[in-house]
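PROTEIN DATA CARD
Card holder: glutamate dehydrogenase (NADP(+))
Chain length: 639
Origin: Acorus calamus
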Amino acid sequence: MLIPGRPLMMNSVTDEMNLLHHPPAHHLVMRDIGEEIDLEIGPGEDDPSFTSTPLVVSQEPTSSEEPEEQKALLLVSHTLSEDQDLTKLQQMKRKKKVVKKWREEWAETYKWAYVDMNEGTTRIFCSVCREYGRKHRRNPYGNEGSRNMQMSALEEHNNSLLHKEALRLQMASKDKSLPIVDRPIYVKSLMSKTAGSIVEAVFRRDPHDVEFIQSVQEVIHSLEPVLVKNSQYVHILERLLEPERMIVFRVPWVDDKGEPHVNRGFRVQFSQALGPCRGGLRFHPRMNLSIAKFLGFEQTLKNALSPYKLGGAGGGSDFDPKGKSDNEIMRFCQSFMDELYRYLGPDQDLPAEDMGVGPREMGYLFGQYRRLAGGHFQGNFTGPKIFWSGSSLRTEATGYGLVFFARLLLAEMNKELKGLRCAVSGSGKIAMHVIEKLLSCGAIPITVSDTKGYLLDEDGFDYVKFSVLRDIKAQQRSLRDYLKSYTRARYFEDAKPWNERCDIAFPCASQNEIEQTDALGLVNSGCRILIEGSNMPCRPQAIDILRKGKVLIAPAKSAGAGGVAVGELELNHEYNLMHWSAEDFESKLQEMIKQTYEKSIKEANSYGFPKDSPEALVHGGNISAFLNLAQAMIDQGCV
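Structure generated from the sequence above:
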């Protein structure tokens, strides 16, 4: 016998049968584990209204002391009177009832679902997508049949794309150290159905790889006219978007106190169609497989845009080198290489530096690689101040190349870099070399930043001030210490430098550092050129704002080609950069930058993007890189 006002407990098969024959006259929504819900089941999957009906947000009763009938009425709509609700409920009741018992293993699923009325029928909606029924392929809780059928439908719902995203958000909310994604993935509008279907396929296959999907969307947006012109490239692009090899492994290590730790290592060898893989290793606590794939994809296109035959890769670990001793970093790097070394080699993969990986880390990594590989001394790691890399100039290549690219763009506008105010983010190797070269060109760099804020010197940095900055970074001190020497400067906590008055912006910190509000700040501050120093520094919404504001964007694929070029020269025995003067090195670097620029503009014009368009360089670079890769993939067959 059922007692009104108390939770319904299923203790036996007889109780369940009694409940089916004598259902209570009220509706319930969210209940605790062990309780049940009673749903009015509507027309079901065959109802044509499944795909076109509007959604109504339900509200739960706030007081447990209210009569049960009033609770049911409030669930239908809080705007209707009690008499109206009773009348409607009586009209909507169906003979068929489904009783489902809340179980421990179902609890997480139901937490992300809710019950609501839709055109006179009780439905179960997903809390993430606010959809029901066919939106999840099937009603996730089943409309009819045995409990086995309902469990099967529930299992299908648990495996669905939208439910997995809900669980990922839930797990992120439990662990504050994990990146919490508080916004849906931004989907660009595409003109062609073909391009849209490719993006949809990537999203279905890798729904949690936010950074990778963002990078793919940008490239496909550029390639739309290419796909329309030649449908053969559709299948090539589909193959290209799946990495050749993804390696995920455990990295155990012991700290100085003797306590064991474990991190996760990644290496994504994205494409070897043009040659052996080349790409950075990043050590950062937020590193994950999505970022490794995004870095590998960007590096693949960047290398394809260069004049050299190189594939692309990316990787690293969620290990944080900050605050670690040299011995701890050495032990971690050795453990990292214990697993990765078997996938490396001069003709297979060539790791390079990235965020959190400098000469010290590269030295430890190569030393362990050499020991494990049998003592072969032929080096295949690239980085500065390492005697097997062959060059002490490579560290400047990427930063100098960004400034040379900016100077090239200004020359096309009949302007020069001298006297222009430049906002720089980051304070790593690339950012510091950007500032150094800006000073030599007569520009006025005014900002640098770190993870806690940014430093502003309205008078601009000069060589003496730059020397102070370099010493601060070498000693791993805070940028705030700069204020002890120059009191007129200011440091802004938890802020970015994009609202400061500037002519050119050099984002050199990390991906997605420029949000919508930052883009508005850049446009309002008078910025006219943005040179990407880091990979994908702008969110898609920010890019839209910058383009509408007529800000010319130089993509990292083109502007950052300097590092790729010099890295290849290091490995070419016909060149010995140790015998080059600084002037020869810069001359060669400028020549490579110019070739990349001209190639991008040529392809942009070929596919209808005029030279003076703010997005010409982005689209032209993506198209040129893809065509090089596509031709190689066509020549090699379906492999």
